[in-house]
Design goal:
The complex is a heterodimer of chains A (244) and B (466). Chain A has 244 residues and is of the alpha/beta class. Chain A has a single domain, classed as Rossmann fold. Chain A is built from seven helices and twelve strands. A six-stranded mixed beta sheet of chain A has the order 6-9-10-3-11-12, sandwiched between helices. Chain A starts with a strand and ends in an 8-residue tail after the last helix. Chain B is globular, with a radius of gyration of 21 Å. In chain B, strands 5, 6, 8, 9, 11, 12, 14, 16, 17, 19, 21 and 23 form a twelve-stranded mixed beta sheet that branches. A ten-stranded mixed beta sheet of chain B has the order 4-3-7-10-13-15-18-20-22-24. In chain B, a hairpin with a 2-residue loop joins β3 and β4. Chain B is built from twelve helices and 24 strands. Helices cover 24% and strands 35% of the residues of chain B. Chain B is of the alpha/beta class and 466 residues long. Classes of the chains: A alpha/beta (244), B alpha/beta (466). Chains A and B meet through α2, β7, α3 and β8 of A and α9 and α10 of B.
């Protein structure tokens, strides 16, 4: 399917054989906002990692198609080049690697741009996110506070402009202001993309209105609904889903 | 050709060689006659001839060092100890023999000289063939010449210091150098003179089966400053060559000397070098030591902190690829009160290469209030490669501060995954991680060298990552 990220009956396990995803199916079209919720250990973060191609997991069954291209088993960088982006729950520190140089290098993989224009654009976006100006001159994620790390992920996304964005708990460890910033920035990006937002909490949904809410339990999506499903979960917890 | 990522034809761009049009060459092997012949070619004063002959006797008596890298490939009988391609030295590139000029142009020396250097000394096999110094430095009394010329022109100054920091008896290769030395640079910076742009030496071994034994002596008089840079390359021959230099640096009261080396010898070179700085009161000595090439390197630049308040720093960086052993590090000997030293070592091992940190901190009785800090970090790119650390501390004074930190890390799966998730391929991602790892040292290296190193790392990773 064009203009969609299609996950079909995906099974995945860790390299030492522990099965975590057990038949996930999900279609994210461009311009759609999906929220994935679920209890701890249900496989939310694993799904994010498996989609991106983390070497610690093996896909045993099922497929992932991006704009009609089978990306189930292609390398991580190729997925990125095709337009998939993962905002990490725990962005990795890379000492000595300048944030701006790194981001420009990644950007140049797609499109050439002068250093000056690139930096101007990056500074503008950084400012909108409420990031300190010198942050982009520091080492990638090194010594960033929790909030800075999360915002820096969104900054990378806003520059790289991927077609499909998976944000793995961008709201954890953030205060309300930071949360608002992030949600606002994601909402106000001036191009179309499909979003899969993984979260524990409903609070980010105050600022970011999803089209769909899915609940992942034990490696399977057990319920799909609209924004009201999230409110229901907030109110009653996940248990009500099993009390039918 | 080995499968080392450093020295495939694509990567090691200095592996070319020129025809051996040497005009003077001693017979193969080492003997008293060869030592005398070298002294005669140079028309040396008697004291230097005797110095050589005594050193030769010490060389004969001393055992090969067995505590470090494997030196079994060094065969003293198979080497030529003196090879000269020109009877003259030149001060204008236009006069330099064409194949020699071609070599230096490929390396980029004349170009760099115009851009940012205060002077250049270019050694080709045994002799310094080209020497220059900016006029304004000469007018201030700065001497920058090859050491052979210095023996003739400034005998008193040379004789006062030559062999005093590193006597021939120090080790077998210091003895060897003392016996057969040729070339190298002599620098004298007068009191209070600041040499604001670097002086550059370039060492090139062209001939097969040679030994290069340059001898460098730097004297920075009180309150002066100089930055000396040296680069080294050689062709890809199939037989072993030997580079055994001796470098003595005297930092007088309140002076500062920075000595930067980027060593990129080809894969057949045994690089066994003794380097030492003697630092007087309130003086500052700095070694920045980059080891990329060679088959085996054993080199531990040393700081002798002899005057009150003297300080020194060693920044050592080593890359060990396939079939390479980089045994590098640094030493700090604190002899006076309130002296400080810092040794930072960063090594990267890949494709089965081996990098060792070997270092020593010695604090003598009476060196009260002295401080030393040693940090060594190793990065391993694969399971085949190896890293070792051999630190020694000898502390004979109570009132001191001593710190040591060491780490060994592997290029992390998480880091690679993270960088690749932004669209960088594996070799780009690895290059970034490696460049980031050595960044604290890179930022101390002059830009032109840093650019070259960066290019080298990127090319190496293309070969190193499957």
């Amino acid at each position: 399917m064009k203009n969609a990220l299609v996950i079909n009956n995906l099974y995945a396990q860790t390299i030492d054989g522990k099965e975590i995803l057990r038949g996930v199916s999900l279609t994210i079209k461009i311009k759609e906002k999906h929220v994935l919720m679920g209890p701890n250990g249900g496989g939310k973060s694993t799904l994010a990692q498996v989609l991106m191609g983390h070497p610690g997991y093996v896909i045993t069954k099922g497929t992932i198609f991006l704009d009609g291209v089978d990306i189930t088993r292609i390398s991580v960088d190729k997925k990125a080049k095709l337009g998939l982006f993962l905002g990490f729950q725990y962005p990795v520190e890379v000492p000595g690697v300048n944030f701006a140089s790194f981001l420009r290098m990644a950007f140049q993989e797609k499109k050439s741009v002068s250093l000056k224009i690139f930096k101007q654009n990056m500074q503008k976006n950084a400012k909108q996110l409420g990031l300190r100006e010198d942050m982009t001159e520091r080492s990638l994620n090194e010594g960033f506070s929790g909030g800075e790390k999360k915002k820096a992920e969104i900054l990378q996304m806003s520059i790289l402009k991927p077609r499909y964005v998976v944000l793995d708990e961008p709201d954890s460890g953030l205060d309300v202001d930071a949360l608002q910033y992030i949600a606002h920035q994601v909402e106000s990006l001036n191009y179309s993309f499909g979003l899969l937002l993984i979260t524990h909490y409903q609070r980010i949904l105050k600022y970011l209105k999803p089209d769909f809410v899915h609940v992942l339990v034990k490696g399977k999506i057990v319920q799909t609904g609209n924004a009201s499903l999230a409110s229901l979960i907030e109110e009653k917890g996940y248990n009500f889903l099993f009390q039918k | 050709m080995s499968n080392s990522p450093f020295f495939t034809n694509n990567v090691y761009k200095f592996g070319f060689y020129q025809p051996e049009n040497d005009v003077v060459r001693t017979p193969k092997g080492l003997s008293r006659e060869v030592v005398e012949m070298i002294s005669r070619i140079k028309n040396e004063p008697l004291w230097m001839r005797n110095f050589r002959l005594q050193a030769y006797m010490m060389f004969e008596q001393k055992m090969m060092p067995t505590w470090g890298a494997d030196l079994s490939g060094v065969n003293f009988d198979e080497l030529y100890y003196y090879v000269s391609s020109s009877e003259k030295k030149f001060h204008d590139w236009k006069e330099v023999p064409i194949e020699v000029l071609d070599t230096y142009e490929k390396i980029g020396i004349p170009q760099a000289e115009k851009k940012f250097l205060g002077g250049v000394g270019a050694q080709y096999d045994s002799e310094v063939i080209y020497q220059s110094i900016k006029k304004h430095l000469e007018e201030k009394g700065v001497i920058f010449t090859d050491t052979d010329t210095a023996v003739q022109k400034y005998p008193d100054l040379v004789r006062e210091y030559f062999g005093t920091i590193i006597p021939p008896s120090d080790n077998k290769f210091a003895a060897l150098n003392s016996a057969v030395w040729s070339g190298g640079n002599f620098i004298y910076v007068p009191k209070g003179v600041q040499v604001e742009i670097p002086l550059q030496a370039y060492f090139r071994m062209n001939a097969k089966q040679i030994g290069q034994f340059e001898r460098t002596l730097i004297i920075a008089d009180e309150g002066s400053y100089v930055h000396y840079l040296e680069g080294c390359t050689a062709p890809n021959h199939h037989t072993a060559t030997l580079h055994a230099a001796v470098v003595e640096v005297i930092v007088k009261k309140g002076a500062r000397v920075r000595y930067t080396t980027v060593q990129n010898w080809s894969e057949t070179v045994y690089n066994l070098v003794t380097k030492r700085m003697f630092i007087e009161e309130e003086g500052v000595g700095e070694w920045i030591d980059g080891n990329i090439g060679s088959k085996v390197t054993m080199k531990y630049p040393s700081l002798i902190l002899a005057g009150k308040g003297a300080s020194g720093e060693v920044l050592s960086m080593a890359f060990a690829g396939a079939n390479q052993h980089q045994d590098a590090g640094g030493k700090a000997i604190h002899l006076a009160p309130y002296t400080t030293s810092m040794i930072t070592s960063k090594s990267v091992s890949m494709q089965g290469g081996r990098a060792s940190y070997r270092g020593m901190v010695k604090i003598a009785k009476g060196a009260k209030g002295s401080k030393s800090f040693v940090r060594c970090d190793a990065l391993l790119l694969d399971e085949l490669s190896r890293s070792d650390t051999y630190p020694v501390n000898i502390i004979n004074e109570q009132d001191v501060t001593l710190g040591h930190e060491a780490s060994v890390s592997k290029v992390g799966e998480q880091q690679l995954f993270y960088l690749m998730s932004r669209g960088l391929n594996e070799s780009q991602a690895t290059s970034l991680i490696v460049n980031g790892f050595i960044e604290p040292i890179m930022k101390e290296i002059p830009l032109d060298y840093a650019v070259e190193l960066n290019r080298f790392i990127n090319l190496s990773m293309e070969g190193a990552v499957g």
